[in-house]
């Protein structure tokens, strides 16, 4: 297992691989509607204190949150003096000059009016916590009890809210119920259904959309400017408009893993040898990223099965043999509902496995056998 040296920064749980952290990302692609909705709320003095940013992982939710927080903290203090040159002009975008003092402090994580709540690093175990803990959330309450800089705005980013454990979620709920004045919270949620209903009800939902192919290309270039811009045809299908997913698939061999998953059901019976190879590839700390990517690809496979039962195999296909396999396993809408249920079960199972550190190989094998049991019902 790799050990972080004393002078080495711990890994950031809200950063996708080698891509820049969202606080360092200058441009946001494909989310003009979400930006317009937020800007309209700000300029019309209807800014909600809690914003629930939803949508698939890797489409720009965190980038939006940092962009909006920078914008708010760089604006004049609410109710403050208009100053020598009168009231500031009405903003037309969330753009903030990268050289603005607030922008510079936020990049350095030294802005006193901003709080970032994310999975903490355990210095003893040299690992990131599997969830956002109640102790980390208590630090947010300490932040609220401090006086805001110059009596102005404060912002909070929770990345990601669906990683809160139960105690932490209840602690955050108190902050949402009685937020300090001029405080705006941005809750990033990849799976908002996993949040407490009371948390969802106290936020304004702001859905962000998967990126178009053109926006995806531009976002990939921003995240990895030196990378090859050509992408295998199947990668766009797997990425589904998510730059984060595209980066993970490229660096982790996602297309090969997905092809191996498909091959498990290329025949009427499960290929048990290949299933064992899939599980063994996820064993050990060195293969943690492969494990995470495999569980993500299983979720994609289940989602594509559910979609196939309703509207036919998704187009474009990830692999040449995918449409035939999906159509055989999901022949109608009844099967689609069954696959959708298994998809939700898989998500909950993976979250539980992460929280209690279950053996990755056992988790993968159990999941593949559950899929095979379902496949036998319909194939």
Give the helices and strands, then pairings.
Layout: H1 32-43, E1 50-54, H2 61-74, H3 101-107, E2 114-117, E3 121-122, E4 127-128, H4 134-145, E5 154-159, H5 166-177, E6 183-189, H6 197-201, E7 204-207, H7 213-223, H8 233-239, H9 243-252, H10 254-264, H11 272-280, H12 288-311, H13 322-329, H14 333-356, H15 360-378
Parallel strand pairs: 1-6, 1-7, 2-5, 5-6
Antiparallel strand pairs: 3-4
In words, what does this structure look like?
With 379 residues, the chain is of the alpha/beta class. The protein has 2 domains: 22-207, Rossmann fold; 253-378. The protein is 49% helix and 8% strand. It is built from 15 helices and 7 strands. Strands 2-5-6-1-7 form a 5-stranded parallel beta sheet, with helices on both faces. It has a two-stranded antiparallel ribbon with strand order 3-4. Helix 4 (134-145) runs parallel beside helix 5 (166-177), helix 10 packs antiparallel against helix 11 (272-280) and helix 14 packs antiparallel against helix 15. The longest helix is centred in the C-terminal third of the chain and has 24 residues, at 288-311. The chain starts with 31 loop residues before the first helix and ends with a helix. The model is unreliable at 1-7 (pLDDT under 50). It is an enzyme of class 2 (transferase). Keywords: Nucleotidyltransferase, Transferase. Residues 12-21 have a biased composition (Basic and acidic residues). InterPro entries: DNA_Rep/Repair_Clamp_Loader (IPR050238), P-loop_NTPase (IPR027417).
């Amino acid at each position: 297992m790799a050990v972080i040296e004393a002078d080495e920064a711990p890994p950031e749980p809200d950063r996708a691989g080698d891509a820049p952290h969202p606080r360092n990302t200058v441009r946001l692609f494909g989310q003009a509607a979400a930006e317009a909705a937020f800007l309209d709320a700000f300029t019309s003095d209807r800014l909600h204190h809690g914003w629930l940013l939803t949508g698939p992982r890797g489409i720009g939710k965190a980038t939006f949150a940092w962009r909006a927080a920078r914008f708010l903290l760089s604006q004049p203090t609410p109710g403050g003096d208009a100053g020598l040159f009168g009231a500031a002009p009405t903003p037309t975008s969330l753009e903030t000059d990268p050289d603005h003092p607030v922008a510079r402090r936020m990049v350095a994580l030294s802005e006193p009016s901003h709080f970032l709540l994310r999975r903490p690093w355990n210095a003893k175990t040299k690992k990131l916590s599997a969830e956002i803990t109640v102790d980390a959330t208590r630090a947010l309450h300490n932040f609220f009890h401090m006086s805001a800089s110059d009596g102005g705005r404060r912002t909070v980013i929770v990345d990601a809210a669906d990683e809160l454990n139960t105690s932490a979620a209840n602690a955050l709920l108190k902050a949402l119920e009685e937020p300090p004045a001029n405080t705006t919270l941005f809750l990033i949620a990849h799976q908002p259904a996993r949040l407490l209903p009371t948390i969802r009800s106290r936020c304004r939902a702001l859905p962000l959309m998967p990126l178009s192919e053109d926006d995806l290309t531009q976002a990939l270039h921003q995240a990895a400017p030196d990378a090859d811009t050509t992408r295998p045809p199947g990668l766009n299908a797997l990425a589904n408009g998510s730059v984060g997913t595209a980066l993970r698939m490229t660096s982790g061999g996602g297309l090969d893993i997905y092809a191996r998953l498909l091959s498990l059901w290329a025949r009427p019976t499960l290929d048990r040898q290949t299933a064992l190879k899939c599980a063994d590839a996820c064993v050990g700390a060195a293969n943690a990223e492969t494990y995470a990517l495999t569980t993500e690809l299983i979720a994609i496979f289940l989602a594509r099965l559910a979609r196939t039962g309703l509207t036919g195999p998704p187009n474009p296909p990830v692999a040449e043999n995918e449409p035939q396999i999906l159509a055989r396993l999901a022949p109608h809408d009844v099967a689609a509902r069954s696959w959708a249920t298994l998809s939700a079960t898989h998500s909950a199972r993976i979250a539980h496995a992460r929280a209690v550190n279950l053996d990755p190989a056992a988790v993968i094998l159990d999941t593949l056998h559950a899929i095979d049991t379902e496949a036998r019902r319909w194939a």
